[in-house]
Design goal:
By secondary structure, the chain is mostly helical. It is about 60% helix and about 10% strand.
Length: about 110
């Protein structure tokens, strides 16, 4: 189990999920709970549902306006670039483990 979560085992993932968790905790505690300690499960569930509702509306507004965030734009660019990749750049290491050659190395 620790191999899935410990950062030392996920060095090639390039994602620090702790930052996202801590940012969410800050929003939960200081914006939705006004810095107070929550002791009731029903209030906590109600607060989480409010956050979900607000995030869903934020996402719908962004999608309706057609504005893409920098992150979404980058994902879209990488997706389009992946269509130009050949199967020779993908190597199966083990069952469920793949290695993909970087497209940046080929351009140099």
């Amino acid at each position: 189990r620790k191999r899935h979560w410990a950062n030392c085992y996920r060095q090639k993932a390039f994602i620090n999920t702790n930052m996202y968790v801590e940012a969410f905790h800050h929003v939960l505690k200081y914006i939705y709970l006004n810095g107070k300690v929550n002791k009731k499960v029903d209030k906590c569930i109600h607060t989480l549902l409010k956050i979900t509702r607000d995030k869903t509306f934020e996402r719908l507004i962004k999608m309706t306006k057609g504005k893409k965030t920098k992150k979404i734009t980058e994902i879209h660019k990488r997706h389009l670039a992946s269509h130009e990749m050949t199967m020779e750049s993908v190597i199966a290491i083990q069952e469920g483990i793949w290695e993909v050659k970087s497209s940046r190395n080929e351009r140099k």
